[in-house]
Specification:
two-stranded antiparallel sheet; 8 strands; 167 residues; 2 domains; alpha+beta; binds adenosine-5'-diphosphate
């Protein structure tokens, strides 16, 4: 009954007046990226498109984050970025991913302490599958990738909510 009833000294228990939906919304608005995240898969911007395709298969992810020699975030590669490149007549084994990736500063990022509902809004708004979780650093692009949050993580949250098994 958590949330339906509250208690006050000298008053005792009372009905909060909140509906089940309001209580669920309250709960969701406290969940942060830190509670639902995955390990990031990063590749160097010098690797070839062919090697990035192999990395995506081997690591079983839909998005690769691209870093420079300072290990700071410089790009994002999605499945369709790599598919599009494969449709052309380019030499996939010699072209670096830096040619086809989405580049900084056009990358949408988030931080561990951000609310997951803000991330969900960004994914819908930008029509993308995931965001890199970053920390600010004072070198390179200014961001280091420390995690990944995707539609799959948000689906896991939905399942936990339905089963009332919140982290
Ligand atoms: P797919 O292209 O496989 O459907 P996405 O919807 O995630 O996957 O990506 C769509 C486009 O947005 C791609 O060109 C990709 O490089 C880019 N993209 C993916 N994630 C981000 C992000 N976090 N910030 C900016 N652009 C992104």
């Amino acid at each position: 009954m958590a949330g339906y009833l509250d208690a006050r000294p000298r008053v005792g228990y009372f009905y909060t007046g909140k509906s089940g939906t309001q209580l669920l919304a309250d709960k969701v608005k406290h969940i942060t990226v830190n509670d639902y995240q995955s390990r990031p898969v990063v590749v160097q911007q010098s690797i070839t498109i062919y090697d990035a395709i192999c990395a995506m298969f081997l690591e079983d992810v839909g998005t690769l984050f691209v870093v420079d020699t300072d290990t700071t975030l410089v790009g994002v590669l999605s499945r369709k970025d790599l598919l599009r490149a494969s449709l052309g007549k380019q030499a996939l084994e010699s072209m670096p991913v830096s040619i086809i990736m989405t580049r900084m500063p056009n990358i949408t990022v988030c931080k561990k302490e951000d609310l997951i509902i803000e991330v969900a809004n960004k994914l819908i708004d930008k029509q993308i599958d995931g965001l890199p979780i970053v920390v600010e650093v004072d070198r390179g692009s200014g961001y280091e990738v420390v995690g990944r949050i995707t539609k799959t993580n948000i689906t896991a949250l939905l399942v936990d909510l339905a089963n009332d098994e919140m982290i």
